[in-house]
């Protein structure tokens, strides 16, 4: 069984630990969050600069795909990344130690939830997923039918 303060053996070297945390934890989280928000701001700014009217219906799909992804990475790994970044900058390890022991694996939750958000935000994938869940049963439609009453004479 692993001890609660388990760390990879490469983290014994302080330079390797700092590189690993910055290159594989901090940078990807910041890049995902800020590039997603920058994409939305770029579209808004382009419409404003071109003096075109912004139609929300056209960009609703893009917003519905970008915002949940940004929110996932803001909720799960971002607090952990901020505390680790502050510790690298010189904050005492005792200040965020309890939080880090709990939040160490929070980035894994983002990876587990990401496919669900991807299916939910894409209309095509959502339709295919519903079709799979219905096990190929066709949707039942209620339609009027004509009946002929023949009277026997």
From TrEMBL:
The chain crosses the membrane at residues 21-45, 66-99, 105-123. SUPFAM superfamilies: Family A G protein-coupled receptor-like. The keyword Transmembrane applies. It comes from the Eukaryota. Keywords: Membrane, Transmembrane, Transmembrane helix. This is G protein-coupled receptor.
């Amino acid at each position: 069984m692993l001890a609660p303060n388990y760390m990879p053996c490469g983290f014994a070297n302080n330079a390797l630990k700092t590189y690993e945390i910055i290159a594989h934890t901090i940078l990807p989280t910041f890049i995902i969050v800020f590039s997603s928000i920058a994409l939305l701001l770029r579209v808004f700014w382009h419409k404003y600069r071109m003096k075109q009217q912004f139609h929300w219906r056209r960009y609703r799909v893009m917003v519905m795909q970008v915002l949940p992804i940004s929110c996932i990475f803001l909720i799960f790994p971002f607090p952990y990344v901020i505390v680790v970044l502050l510790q690298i900058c010189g904050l005492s390890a005792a200040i965020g130690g309890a939080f880090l022991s709990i939040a160490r694996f929070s980035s894994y939750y983002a990876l587990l939830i990401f496919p669900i958000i991807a299916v939910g935000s894409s209309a095509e994938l959502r339709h295919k997923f519903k079709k799979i869940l219905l096990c190929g049963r066709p949707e039942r439609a209620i339609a009027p039918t004509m009946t002929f009453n023949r009277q026997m004479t």
